[in-house]
Amino acid sequence: MALKHHYQFCFGPWNISEGQDPYGPTTRPPQSFDWKLSALKKMGFDAMMFHDDDAVPDIDSKSVAQIRKEAKELKKRLDGEGIAAEMVAPRLWFHPNTVDGGYTSNDKKHRQYAIDRSRRCIDIAKILGTDLIVLWLAREGTYIREAKDGRRSVDLLVEAFDAMLAHDKRARLAIEPKPNEPMDHAYIPTIGHALAIAQHTRDPKRVGCLIESAHAILAGLDPSDEIDFACSFDKLWSIHLNDQNGLKYDQDRPFGCTNLRSAFDQIRTLERNQYGKNGEYVCFDVHPFRTTKVEHWTAHLENSRRTFLLLLEKVRSFDEKAARSLIANRDYQALDQLVIEHLMGN
After folding, report:
1. Contact in structure between 237 and 132 (CB atoms under 8 Å)
2. CA-CA distance, 130 to 120, in Å (whole number)?
3. Which domain holds residue 233?
């Protein structure tokens, strides 16, 4: 019998990637958005994540009226398929105006471009039926520290966030921190930084966070601790589960494929905090290996969900009473073995 649970699952069109990396070309032919939407529906996922230009392609070349028209057409398609829009994120790291950052660019005109595009993103999200705006602050940093004033950059970020919050009184901003890549150092590298800067905004209650497993690992942190920290402030509004093999480039490996125990801990923490009970989604920000054949193109997504559900069974069948007894006796060595043997099926 299938395990009963409350979780809803999600991914984005970029998670069905073609295999290109910084060192080589694509290994699979490109597929249309319609194909990807159909794949999501076929696999039984509940929602799709969007960048603003996933929802409205070539967004910078279109009028506000055209953007709204195309967003409404997409909403109608999503409703017809029974698929929700989980979030919309402004893609600010591709445009020439964001070479030196968007909100923290040293060029005032470029900062204004980033804010204006973010406002259009919020309009799209509202039409698609979500109030969640995800901010991956990809180029909000600098390659050399002398090029920008870090304190001024914090002020500029707050200025941008305030403009977004004022644009729509219902919009929520979920900051997705990452310590590196594409910048070697980012201004908001961890959940602690994200929640701290939220307090400077005009409406801190509407500024929260999104945790990605790999980003926490790249910061030298434990993803489950980051989850607990965000939940202690009721600020975990979305989560991207994946895996990461050490402090390298952002790998977006299938969930649980590198560190099964860490994946177990993350789900245990989500369960403990009742994540998802208020409608939050479990998103898999994972990519197929470059070697993946076309016929296996979506396996990484199905496998990530399958691993999640198998580990959810492990979490729910874990002997919490025995664990509490060992903790009370400070017998952490035995607790360690209890976890290991439980994951091994003993």
Report:
1. yes
2. 14
3. 9-320
Query: pLDDT class for 35, splitting at 50, 70, 90?
Result: very high
In a domain, 64, yes or no: yes
d(CA 145, CA 157): 17
Structure tokens at 305: 């969900």
Nearest to 97 by CA among 83, 85, 111, 77: 111
pLDDT digits (tens, 9 = 90+) for 116-157: 999 999 999 999 999 999 999 999 999 999 999 999 999 999
From residue 288, how far is each of 69, 104, 130, 135, 139 by CA, in Å? 33, 33, 28, 24, 25
Q: Tell me the β-bridge partners of 212.
A: 240
Q: Which residues are the active-site residues?
A: 51, 54
205 contacts: CB under 8 Å, gap ≥ 6: none
DSSP 259: -
Q: Which amino acid is at 137?
A: L
116: in domain: yes
Domain annotation covers residue 334? no
Task: Indicate whether 340 belongs to any domain.
Answer: no
Distance CA 340, CA 330 (A): 17
Structure tokens at 309: 């559900």
Question: Which pTM value belongs to this model?
Answer: 0.96
CATH number at residue 231: 3.20.20.150
- Total domains in the chain come to 1
